[in-house]
Specification:
Elements: H1 9-13, E1 22-26, H2 30-44, E2 54-58, H3 59-63, H4 67-74, E3 83-88, H5 95-103, E4 109-114, H6 123-129, E5 134-138, H7 144-158, E6 161-162, H8 164-173, H9 178-191, E7 197-198, H10 200-206, H11 212-223, H12 227-239, H13 244-266, H14 271-276, H15 287-296, H16 299-318, H17 323-340
Parallel strand pairs: 1-4, 1-5, 2-3, 3-4, 6-7
Family: Belongs to the DNA polymerase HolA subunit family.
InterPro entries: DNA_pol3_clamp-load_cplx_C (IPR008921), DNA_polIII_delta (IPR005790), P-loop_NTPase (IPR027417)
Keywords: DNA replication, DNA-directed DNA polymerase, Nucleotidyltransferase, Transferase
């Protein structure tokens, strides 16, 4: 097996292995997949003066022409040196193309394959993990240690110190997606440029919760019957690298909370009392939308919506490529039901 253990990932990616020219990056954190692919491709292309040395291929196109991958990888670079190929897997099957490549890997090439979440023991993941010519690296949501390392790395590169309390506060605000976290830290560094150090005030002024705030906005707009607002928030979240299944999971949790609150309303309580008595407390900015949702939805209709969202969540996890489309369609349907009421 050539699956790289989590503790060995950084060391593995820091150097090129000529005996294993194919690198498969996969997992639920698409932002981390993209970041690692970009860094590895840049390392592979170092020292080359060939403007055509890096070739980017689309998996859906390769599926219809399996021989193209090995042809591109085997093409001699115009000015000599290494051939670098980037392949991003889409919805179609690229197994025949990768099998042919691994059966006879070119001597002077590095091939980086980006994929979504792949199940252990089957398909492309099993093929690369069992090949002596490939490395397979899973990219999962950042842990607390990963986030802390990212903060330290980016602040050091920017040449600005960060207070210990500010660092802890920033880490709490960042989500599990690498690209979204990197974007939030970059905004903070730009905001604090010229300051002697980053403080908690800087963090609170510029950094939003990259996971929680965006998810609340999507869920609240969905159940309040605001499809346009939901679509804008959803596009922003997914554009920053947030996974579709994470969005749906958060919306399902909001549905469960609304269900419990609505039970109290239908038992004779008031909407206002249900909102004020919620634990954890609901932020004042969310209260108008939550109250609107409680008036629009009955217990029975919330149960139906929750079942539909659960089905969409499962479908999004099974097909990460189509996940955003699956999630957006389900959310628009629920938002439409909220507008109709009844």
């Amino acid at each position: 097996m050539v699956a790289v253990r989590p503790g060995d990932v950084e060391a593995t990616l820091s150097r090129l292995d000529p005996l294993r020219p194919v690198l498969l990056l996969f997992g639920p954190d698409s932002g981390l997949v993209r970041e690692r692919a970009r860094a590895y491709l840049a390392r592979a292309a170092e020292g080359s003066d060939d403007p055509f040395g890096l070739v980017r291929l689309d998996g859906d196109e390769i599926s219809g022409d399996p021989g193209r991958l090995i042809d591109e990888a085997g093409t001699v670079a115009l000015f000599g040196g290494r051939r670098v190929v980037s392949l991003r897997v889409g919805a179609r099957n690229v197994m025949p193309a990768v099998e042919a490549l691994l059966a006879a890997p070119p001597a002077q090439a590095i091939i980086v394959i980006e994929a979504g979440d792949l199940k252990r023991g089957v398909g492309l993941r099993a093929l690369c993990e069992s090949s002596p010519h490939a490395l397979a690296i899973a990219c999962y949501a950042d842990t607390e240690r990963d986030i802390a390392r990212l903060i330290d790395t980016m602040t050091a590169e920017a040449g600005i110190a960060i207070d210990r309390d500010a660092r802890a506060e920033l880490a709490d605000l960042l989500g599990g997606d690498r690209m979204a976290s990197r974007g939030e830290i970059a905004k903070l560094l730009l905001y604090a440029a010229g300051e002697p150090r980053i403080t908690g005030a800087h963090v609170r002024a510029i950094v939003g919760d990259a996971s929680g705030l965006a998810l609340d906005e999507i869920a609240d707009a969905t159940f309040a019957g605001q499809p346009a607002e939901m679509a804008v928030a959803f596009a922003k979240a997914t554009g920053e690298g947030m996974r579709a299944d994470i969005v749906l999971s958060a919306v399902c949790r909001t549905a469960q909370t609304l269900h419990q609150m609505r039970l109290g309303v239908e038992a004779g309580g008031s909407v206002e009392r249900a909102v004020e008595g919620a634990r954890p407390a609901i932020h004042f900015r969310r209260k108008p939308l939550i109250e609107k949702a409680l008036r629009n939805w009955s217990v029975a209709r919330l149960e139906t919506a929750l079942f539909a969202l659960d089905d969409a969540l499962l479908a999004a996890r099974r097909n990460a490529t189509l996940g955003p489309a699956i999630a957006e369609r389900a959310l628009l349907q629920v938002a439409g039901q909220a507008r109709r009421g009844g």
